[in-house]
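Dear Dr. H.,

I hope your travels went smoothly. While you were away I took the liberty of generating a structure for the chain from your last submission, since the lab meeting agenda had it listed for discussion. I wanted you to have the full record in hand beforehand rather than looking at slides cold. The sequence, exactly as received, is reproduced here:
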Amino acid sequence: MSNQKHPSERPYLKTHSLQPENQETPIQFIENNHVHPKLFYRRNHFLFPQLSYSNYFLTINGYVQKPRVLSLQEIYQLPSKTIKVLLECSGNKRHFFKPKVFGEQWEKGAISQGYWTGVPLRNLLDKVGLRNGAKEVVIEGYDFGERSDLDHLYSFTRSLPLEKALHPDTLIAYEYNNEPIPFKHGYPLRLIVPQWYAMASVKWIKQITIIDKEFAGPFQSIDYVYYPNKDDNEGARPVTTINVNSTIQKPLNREILNTGKHTIKGIAWTGTGFVKKVEISTDNGDTWITANLENQDTHGYDWVNWSFEWDVTKKGEYTILSKATDSANRTQPKQPFWNRKGYGYNAIDTIHVKIE
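The corresponding predicted structure, in token form, is as follows:
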């Protein structure tokens, strides 16, 4: 007998907007450690770009010794590597900030992961030769449009400091889970920047430009910046490294359960080192118990699955919490770092269940 689920039993993306398309992964129903492309969350600022793949070329120019224009075939022939990397939107869990903030009200599903195959960016930069004084690598995508705050057309463009651009695991990727990257996720080429929030992983790469100063495009200097204050920009700093975080996948929030044994399970991840420990509380934080980590390693680019067997005999309402700690001893806080654009939410995860 086939184990394939009937279409009505399969999970699907949760839609926040369609123009542009912003949809989140049903993370509570994800059982594999690599997310199927159809369930990979989608984050867009503009409509999908119009591309002609038959004459696609990647231009690398700017503060270099020898500018190059590379075809897809030339890139495919270069030595490649495959790495398992999670991508998390920096606005993941924005819905839970208090006071509320403006922006897409992502809940817990603006995160997905899988296997990315491509060429290290540093290998392409070696081909053009960086000039002395090169400071940042600017990656421009083909997606563009108007911004509500600026009277101009902009493409989605971001930069990386040289150190991050030259990291051996920063990839110009062309495959996801051993298949060409789906168009809606950046085909034919997208950047993959492990351990940084996914705004850095630019899709539909148009060109790469090396510059000798700080890049000041609006998706670098206005968006994806932590603004600690509601009414001024004092203390502003860029959004970069993923915060240590965890999500409870099971039970579901507000689920009604019977007395007896139940598995509490979820995922945990970090942008610094690796997840060292996950603790669970079933009494709203009065006591904590260490959960079982099922796929812990020191790589740190993907999430860790964790679980805890809960034997509950008393009826009533319960608050279940999860709290992750990474190898840099960063631990999820009780309260998130509030910022007015709602980035980097990583407070202790919380659900409520009723036992009958």
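Two observations you may find useful: Residues 245-355 form a domain with the Immunoglobulin-like fold (CATH 2.60.40.650). The longest strand covers residues 136-147.

With kind regards,
E. W.
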